[in-house]
Amino acid sequence: MDLHSGMPFWIVLNPLYNYYNPLKKNIKTHTVIIGSGITGALVAHTLCSLGVKCILIDKRTIGTGSTAASTAQLQYEIDVPLVDLIEKVGEKKAIDAYKCCLQSITDVENVFKAIEKDPDFERVPTYLLASNKTGKNLLEKEFKARKDAGLPVKHLTKEQIKTQLGIDALAGLYNKTSAQLDCYKGATYILDHYLKKNQLELYSHTLVSNYKETKSGYELVTENGNKIICENVVIAAGYEAGEFLPKKVMDLLSTFAIVSHPVDKKYLWKNRALIWETKTPYLYMRTTNDNRIIVGGEDEEYNNPLKRDQALTDKAAVLEKKFKKMFPEIPFVTDMSWAGTFSSTADGLPYIGTYPNKPNMYFALGYGGNGITFSMIAAQVIGNLIIGKPDSRAELFGFNRSKL
Asked: What 8-state DSSP symbol labels residue 262?
């Protein structure tokens, strides 16, 4: 699947992780991770830290799938508002899901502290703005629900938002717990760390064309006919994981993003906060450490790469126009634009763990706008399950939580 088009900023910003090592022999290991993006990297970090012998394979150059197109924002908020999620899955599960996301931001930060690498990880606040009167009413309910749940949140009036951001919005929610990073750099830093410590085998340009269950696990067959014998398989292939799933569990969508030329820091809004809005699809934005502005949104319910590519120019123009309407004083000039594939689930939650009747095949599917925080949770849950340690989050985010 063609996961992105245009010119993703992270691939241009960073030197390409120059690693070419296709599998050319039959091998045996305890656990195989499929996917070298941020999800696969976090799974590798967790398993290596637990002493699990593992290899990671990817059909592409390392880290150049969906991770390259991510805008890499880490928030505890899920695409489905808490009040709506309570209606979908119940109060306890909904609150637990939000609290798991909140904790995972710190857990991601600690991963990079552990390997002593900084992928431009930065703690920033978040503003969620009401797009209209419906959004204002939603935020009033959402504020109460989050406050009652003990989640960090502050309600802002129209006047407060105008004072703090210079934006006209009817209301907003604010918290100081979010973060942002360079997602591509993060993934390659993790994999390079464990590769150099000889705790991980890494094979690029290696496509699994077939697989079968065995008495002790799985036998994977690559397109070149090489075999990998293992006890466990972790599917961290994100939006390309469908070929391993008996049934469809997500809807594929296309999203679009632009990044500006660097601007004078005097133009940047307060605390370089993450900003997003209540309407669907929502507009969202962040800054980079070299004073660029990333704006994303304009999601469409299609995943045809050709249609997505044809729409990119128009979508980029719409995103720039919307940004300039919100911040007319900021001299925003689009430097790069790109489109990517992402997906959503019925309840906005990820799918983590084993699929019914597919033992020892673990899925780390961090679908939705919280891909990185969900991926951190998935890595921890799957790591625990593989070593035989119970994890209550497996039920919360598992395939059995609803009819597929």
From this structure: P
Give the separation between CA 353 and CA 348, rounded to whole angstroms. 16
Question: Does domain 4-70+184-249+348-401 bear CATH number 3.90.76.10?
Answer: no
Whether 3 shows a pLDDT value over 50: the answer reads: no
Cβ within 8 Å of residue 255, ≥6 positions away: 281, 296, 297, 298, 299, 300, 339, 340, 341, 342
Calculate mean pLDDT across residues 127-145: 97
Average pLDDT of every residue of the chain: 92
- Check if 4-70+184-249+348-401 and 123-177+251-344 are the same fold: no
pLDDT classification of 339: cutoffs 50, 70, 90:
confident
Look up the pTM and report it. 0.94
Could you give the CA distance from residue 48 to residue 68 in angstroms, rounded to a whole number? 24
Segments making up each domain of the chain, as ranges: 4-70+184-249+348-401, 123-177+251-344
234 vs 247: CA distance, rounded Å: 17
Render pLDDT for 7-31 as a digit per residue (tens, 0 to 9). Answer: 788 888 999 999 999 999 999 999 9
Taking CA atoms, 241 is separated from 105, 126, 250, in Å, by 24, 31, 10
Instruction: Name the percent of the chain in helix, strand, coil, to the closest 5.
Output: 35, 25, 35
Q: Closest Cα to residue 182, out of 379, 57, 12, 313?
A: 12
Q: How confident is the model at residue 402 (pLDDT cuts 50, 70, 90)?
A: low
Specify the DSSP class assigned to residue 8: -
CA atoms within 13 A on the CB side of 122: 18
Cα distances from 349 to residues 27, 66, 69, 250, in angstroms, run 35, 18, 21, 10
Strands 171-180 and 73-74: antiparallel
Angle between helices 38-49 and 91-115 (to 10 degrees): 80
Burial zone of 165 (CB within 10 Å; 0-12 exposed, 13-18 middle, 19+ buried): buried
pLDDT of 35? 95
